[in-house]
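Researcher: I've been going back and forth with a colleague about how DUF4924 domain-containing protein might be arranged in three dimensions. Neither of us has a model we trust, so I'd like an independent prediction. The organism is Bacteroides coprosuis DSM 18011, in case that matters for your notes. Sequence below.
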Amino acid sequence: MFKIAKKLKQKNIAEYLIYMWQIEDMIRAYSLDIDLIEKELINPSVVSLEEQEEEKQWYKELVEMMYSEGVKEKGHLQINQNTIIILTDLHNELISCTKYPFYNTSYYKALPFIVELRAINKDEKKSDIEICFDALYGVMLLRLQKKEITPDTEKAVNAISGFIATLAHYFEKDKAGELKFD
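Model: Here is an independent structure prediction for DUF4924 domain-containing protein. You can compare it with whatever you and your colleague have in mind.
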């Protein structure tokens, strides 16, 4: 799991964040019990002893952070919140810049659904980016539970997913120093 997170962080920031939210929920499902996590999640036949120790240490650190940050039952670790903040900052720069009309188009396609989700959840504090990730994660959980997803929800998720994929693409460009803002 540690290796997957590491690869996703390098390859696709959006997939990384969704994955880390899943890891938080898995840790909660195992009652933040590192021994149970080690027993159930770290497969000794797939990784070397060194990799097992590295993965156990990663989970242990996540568990410790969940305790110290008060997110044992719900919420997200600060390291994951920081990713949302970074993406929100980039989004704000992109949306206020005239050089990236493709990004603006993608955002404005998703915006009606974001506004609707904000109204449903009555959460004025969350950024548009966090609302999008909440929606994507929620639908992923519904799919895992094999629950029905309405056509309207599917339409919203497609627009939001496209927008977040575009944001992730621009994040990579920014990381590579390829973006220039006014």
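Researcher: What would you highlight for our discussion?
Model: I'd start with this: The longest helix spans residues 151-175. After that, consider the following. Residues 78-175 form one domain.
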